[in-house]
Amino acid sequence: MTSRRGGDAIARETTRRARGTVFVISAPSGAGKTTLCKRLLQELQGIDFSVSFTTRAPREGEREGVDYCFIDREEFERRRRKGEFVEWALVDGQMYGTSGAAVKEATARGHDILLDIDTQGAENIRRLIHDAVLVFVMPPSREALRERLTHRATDTPETVARRLSLARGEVEKSPLYDYVVINDELDVAYDQLRAIVVAARCRRERLMGRIKEIAASFGVGRGPGREG
Ligand code: ADP
Ligand code: 5GP
Predict the structure, then answer these.
(1) Which of 14, 144, 207, 216 is 20 to 30 A from 60 via CA?
(2) Whose C-alpha lies nearest to ligand 2, atom 22?
């Protein structure tokens, strides 16, 4: 069995000195995205959560600056006009935006950054950040999604019905994504999500700095090879 600690050592090693990767994760509401993201952020090092700005009111238990930065429409407009958002969208009547500065700062430090954003946001990030990795979390069926939304018990039956009808449009957008994680068994889905992040950290382009150093220690790039 591979230990978590061992996995994290690999994660740290592979992120040293390289620019971090932008991960986008989207899902129909209730598919389990929050559950999966929280676990990933707890268990993997070197990955930050992008705290979005939103005009919607905080839900019970949500913390300012941790789950979202809660601002009013006027403030949102002011920030949008100043170009502070790398992407923004109107979702279910409320504005949501991703801070461009936070994405830049994290990736420049060699940290990955996880953007929990909707399919409109994912489309925009795909155009703007070509090496972003897009992951779609899919429920195993519409019925399973309905059950999860009902059991979560944070929403009224009307909200559950609205979310179910919105889910269709979101599932339709899944071809835009690089990876799809079907969240049937939570542990299996989590391992898949984690594997996607670790694999992205092993991409050759991302490791160019280290590869050059290692190659140089073999004399690669210094003319014809000599054994010794
Ligand atoms: P989202 O962030 O996508 O809206 P949540 O993470 O809040 O979804 O999950 C919705 C509900 O489904 C929660 O009650 C959560 O505990 C439950 N859930 C998440 N993943 C699974 C799973 N694989 N099997 C059963 N229930 C799950
Ligand atoms: P909720 O209000 O339930 O937290 O989020 C509603 C939807 O908005 C979810 O699909 C979530 O991923 C998305 N969302 C959250 N932050 C952002 C953001 O900054 N940009 C975009 N485009 N969508 C966001």
Answers:
(1) 144
(2) 121
